[in-house]
TrEMBL record:
It comes from Pikeienuella piscinae. Residues 84-203 form the GST C-terminal domain. Gene3D superfamilies: 1.20.1050.10, Glutaredoxin. PANTHER family: GLUTATHIONE S-TRANSFERASE-RELATED, HYPOTHETICAL GLUTATHIONE S-TRANSFERASE LIKE PROTEIN. Keywords: Transferase. GO terms for molecular function: transferase activity. Belongs to the GST superfamily. The lineage of its organism: Bacteria, Pseudomonadati, Pseudomonadota, Alphaproteobacteria, Rhodobacterales. This is Glutathione S-transferase family protein. PROSITE patterns: GST_CTER (PS50405), GST_NTER (PS50404). Residues 1-82 form the GST N-terminal domain.
Amino acid sequence: MPKLYDSKFSGNAWKVRILLSRLAIPYERITLDLAKGEAKEPGFAAKSRFQRVPALELDDGRCIVESCAMMLYLAEGSDLLPADPVARADVVSWLFFEQADLTKPLAIPRFFHLRGIAGEMAARIAALQEQGYPALDKLEAWIAPREWLSEGRCTLADLGVYPYVALAHEGGYDMSRYPGIGAWLKRVEAEPGWAPLIEEGAR
Ligand SMILES: N[C@@H](CCC(=O)N[C@@H](CS)C(=O)NCC(=O)O)C(=O)O
């Protein structure tokens, strides 16, 4: 059974957990405490070369790092990742957009809020939001007249872009500006296998 190394608040790990659940793949979940520096410990660093979660350890001991690489590996052969090269490239383009344009501007302000240091980091948050809002504007322009990001159905594109957009409000983003995104988030949440970031009852 594969092992998924994650952390409680990681949107990148949430992405992979939603996919594992959607594909009904059993796995062992190992949750690290990043605040205690557990991602930097030598045992974990030997598995995850960038010393970050998520990391997916396969039965033969090989480890896949980078959430989108895990998604591509796990979704191979499923209807979430088209076989046609052009359709596949379109789906994958959203994973690149998420990593290049969305993740940091959305995740870092959230991290400052979660750590209770948003006040002292206000200038940094404002600078990140200057990058994040234009990316969200592009996402809104694309999704508002559509139901799904690619292929006219739920694909890896939607599952990959979803987590940090769904969490953006925790970083102080005003998501009321984006009704199209709001409707799309609800569609993703109604998909089979979707699970909340923190399961009900978990502490
Ligand atoms: N591009 C990477 C980003 C992974 C990442 O930034 N992980 C964060 C948590 S979401 C982490 O492990 N940080 C290490 C630390 O805080 O010590 C991915 O998509 O997997």
